[in-house]
Amino acid sequence: VGKRAWAHGKACRHSSRHSGPRHWLCHIVRVFPPGGRGKKVLIVYAHQEPKSFNGSLKKVAVEELSKQGCTVTVSDLYSMNFEPRATRNDITGAPSNPDVFSYGIETHEAYKKKALTSDIFEEQRKVQEADLVIFQFPLYWFSVPAILKGWMDRVLCRGFAFDIPGFYDSGFLKGKLALLSLTTGGTAEMYTKDGVSGDFRYFLWPLQHGTLHFCGFKVLAPQISFGLDVSSEEERKVMLASWAQRLKSIWKEEPIHCTPPWYFQE
Amino acid sequence: VGKRAWAHGKACRHSSRHSGPRHWLCHIVRVFPPGGRGKKVLIVYAHQEPKSFNGSLKKVAVEELSKQGCTVTVSDLYSMNFEPRATRNDITGAPSNPDVFSYGIETHEAYKKKALTSDIFEEQRKVQEADLVIFQFPLYWFSVPAILKGWMDRVLCRGFAFDIPGFYDSGFLKGKLALLSLTTGGTAEMYTKDGVSGDFRYFLWPLQHGTLHFCGFKVLAPQISFGLDVSSEEERKVMLASWAQRLKSIWKEEPIHCTPPWYFQE
């Protein structure tokens, strides 16, 4: 079945059983296609091991979204050996100031002249085409792994993702959705207001507000799979299933209100 | 002068002017040496350009701390081309589980067997020797640049910086001080509770609490040089001078109380 189920042209998928007029269910599907049909999703995935739980979460998302009729692209950062360092290698040709190198100024200029290095350009193309960007990663030090931080540092450059002015609600990626799907070693109890690690919303602030919202993304609620250090096989299955279940109606979700009260006052 | 000023053995530094008994000032210095004498400082520095303002802040710190008699070591991450990616290349020899690679498990095992790659080991040695670690960096996406995130991901591994249990106040780097010295493009007004980017303390949470405090560091107040995108040459000089001035009495400072109230309620 997969995405082809919703992409039927002349014949409906029940045609082998119904040689007469088109089946009533298929008419309904044509009038009310499932939310994902025609949507484009980019999954930016940062785990070293395909057999990991992060790998499974990524796989489940690809399968479920494809089944809905979405076009799914995965940037598998470790297998791409993605470059995380922001250096002058990111611009081709001569710098605008050969004496003093400013990464922000030079990449802004290079973006305008189409002189960014090709790996950055390729990721920007994927983001530009996407309706939804899902970030799948294990929490490292209350944040993304460095390889994914490097994706943010290098891909979301001025000119492409924002300008000054032209940020937060006016960020250039407005109209797109973003979602963080992450795993933690520590338990959900540790990530509560009175837990040792504080409310999980605290560590989401730099990522969801400072990065994604800054670029104009509407942010969907995070998907957090807590406590992997102590979870049983059964608990992991439940977490995987709940992710798959959520994705079935992901296109109907309302974004969070990505401002301080969501993080610090609720 | 520099650090040798305070390291005088037989003769005091005024000996060329005083051939008689030791000068009174030198006696005082012997009884009350300045705080930095004999202290070791590691500066983890993440900027591409020596002529940058970050470069100047780093230079000022090296000079002032050396003058006090500290031994100062700098890890200049870009010039080292420091590896930010957390991969199986970080362990030498056979992994403990050849079928499924877990970075956390494998590096913990490798630490115990002294089988981590040499660049990680070398940074751990510098941290182990330091009384104070200063991180000097420009804020990228409300956080550290990826190259510095990679330093945190790879150097502060389980077994070296913490264990479970053995974190926060019991973290293995307890007894050491840490300080974030960072620059922002945005102004101080933007980083207030009612500003577009929220209180600057919000973005410090993952770094100061989630990372440094987790490893046991006592955290000194951050040094934030705001508004570099709009600052005049004169304003930059003032910021540099205030950093140098602060460092003169850095060893007398009390650490912040690194828990949620400092970040979210004051």
Task: Using the coordinates above, name the CATH class of chain A.
Answer: Alpha Beta
In DSSP terms, counting alpha (H) and pi (I) runs of 4 or more, how many helices of chain A?
8
Q: State the shape of chain A.
A: globular
Indicate the proportion of strand residues of chain A.
Answer: 5-15%
Mean pLDDT of chain A: 90
* Biggest interface and residues each: A-B, 52 and 52 residues
Secondary-structure element order of chain A, N to C: HEHEHHEHEHEEHH
Q: Total strand count of chain A, please? A: 6
Proportion in helices of chain A = 25-40%
State the CATH architecture of chain A.
Answer: 3-Layer(aba) Sandwich
Q: Which class do the helix and strand fractions of chain A yield?
A: alpha/beta
List the helices and strands and how they pair.
2 copies of one chain form a homodimer.
Chain A (H helix, E strand, L loop, with lengths): L23 H8 L8 E6 L7 H15 L3 E6 L26 H10 L5 H12 L2 E7 L7 H10 L21 E7 L16 H14 L4 E2 L3 E3 L7 H16 L11 H5 L2
Helix pairs in contact in A: 2-7
What does this 3D model show about the protein?
The structure is a homodimer of 266-residue chains. Chain A is globular. In chain A, strands 1, 2, 3, 4, 5 and 6 form a six-stranded parallel β-sheet that branches. The first copy, chain A, is α/β, with parallel strands linked by helices. Chain A is built from eight helices and six strands; from the N terminus they run αβαβααβαβαββαα. Chain A has a single domain, classed as Flavodoxin domain (Rossmann fold, 3-Layer(aba) Sandwich). In chain A, 41% of the residues are buried. In chain A, α6 links the parallel β4 and β5. At the A-B interface, α5, α6 and α8 of A face α5, α6 and α8 of B. Chains A, B: Its EC number is 1.10.5.1. Chains A, B: Homodimer.
